[in-house]
Design brief:
- This protein is 42% helix and 17% strand.
- It is an alpha+beta fold and 274 residues long.
- A hairpin with a 2-residue loop joins β3 and β4.
């Protein structure tokens, strides 16, 4: 309804109700709420509704996210060059994550290539789980409420309490690592949060083949590299001094000598499908 009002033109309750395919009484209640909250005003002389300047505030979060993506762009590109495996920056979008930047096009190791604008279910990979874990608590509960209205979510990802347990584990670790069986070359993903002082949130992740990357490479090279870059992104966004260069993490070419990721003495890696 706000989108229709914001597009211009003169609207009364009846025309708005038709435009959004709702009963007139429902449309009227929505308009009353928007008027009370200050987003819409009603002209008592003509009974016409129009948006107020407060609708501009609805773009604040998007503007912050856009600025975060802009600040991250050169750092994500450099990290992708260093790690060789594809690197992505994703932001929350409802019950999905939206890829805002990816190095898939330049990575020779990208088995499946994604482009910016691709959406993925929030529980599907490490990026979504990190976004969910480090989102505002009320927002996280709302997303889970929406997800678990669908019975198939419980069948695919397990009961809600198990997902909440995984989220709590990720919050404690500060990262998520997900292995997806049945994907090309057992594709895995490792992600860390990028959270600014104002609360703008994104996930920085690297995708890799499980059979080609050893546990030591994940924990000692990939994870520090992601964290260093995440800190550098936040520093650029906040206008702070630059953090240590990515090279300080000693990121090398992907190691292909280790047959596993999982190690019995390293419970820090979260397997969503375990």
């Amino acid at each position: 309804m706000l989108a229709i009002l914001n597009a211009g033109g003169e609207h009364r309750v009846a025309s708005l109700a038709r435009a959004v395919s709702l009963p007139r009484s429902t449309a009227f209640r929505i308009l009353c709420t928007l008027v009370e909250e200050g987003y819409v005003e009603r002209d008592p002389a003509t009974d016409l509704y129009s948006p107020t300047a407060m609708v501009l505030a609805l773009s604040d979060g998007f503007d912050a996210t856009a600025r975060l993506v802009q600040a991250a762009r050169p750092l994500v590109t450099e990290l992708g060059r260093k790690l060789v495996w594809p690197v992505t920056l994703a932001t929350p979008s409802g019950t999905s994550v939206l890829l805002r930047q990816t190095t898939d096009a330049t990575s020779p190791l990208a088995l499946v290539r994604y482009s910016p604008g691709h959406r993925a279910p929030i529980l599907e990979g490490a990026s979504g789980l990190v976004v969910l874990a480090f989102a505002d608590g009320q927002q996280r509960q709302m997303i889970l409420d929406l997800l678990y209205r669908d019975q198939s979510v419980s069948c695919e990802h397990g009961p809600r309490h198990l997902v909440e347990h995984r989220i709590a584990e990720i919050q404690g670790l500060g990262y998520a690592c997900v292995h997806r069986p049945g994907q090309p070359s057992d594709r895995s993903s490792l992600a860390v949060p990028v959270r600014t002082a104002s609360g703008t949130l994104a996930a920085l992740a690297v995708r890799f083949a499980r059979s080609a990357v050893g546990q030591q490479v994940i924990m000692n090279r990939m994870l520090p590299a992601l964290r260093t870059t995440a800190h550098a992104i936040v520093a650029r966004f906040d206008g702070s001094a630059a953090t240590a260069p990515i090279d300080a993490c000693d990121i090398g070419a992907p190691h292909i000598d280790a047959p596993h990721i999982d190690a019995p003495d390293r419970p820090a890696v979260t397997d969503l499908h375990s």
